[in-house]
Amino acid sequence: xxxxxxxxxxxxxxxxxxxxxxxxxxxxxxxxxxxxxxxxxxxxxxxxxxxxxxxxxxxxxxxxxxxxxxxxxxxxxxxxxxxxxxxxxxxxxx
Length: 94
What we know:
Elements lengths: L2 E9 L8 H14 L3 E12 L9 E11 L1 H12 L4 E8 L1
Antiparallel strand pairs: 1-3, 1-4, 2-3
């Protein structure tokens, strides 16, 4: 059974050669490859954190709305957890 979700993904672009747009397209490609139907991708831009956890001062925020089943969501969550460019990821059912 597929459900609608929204993901907030924070990318760590500090010292990376790829641009934020390339990282977003790579993540969206991985999500589509897992079987998710992407509905909307909003690039919210770079924002500073109020505190500097783990010596990261800012991150590039991306909001992705998609439709997926739970197995595909867990597979993508695990894959993005291993990605060094992804600083944080949050998922919420709509």
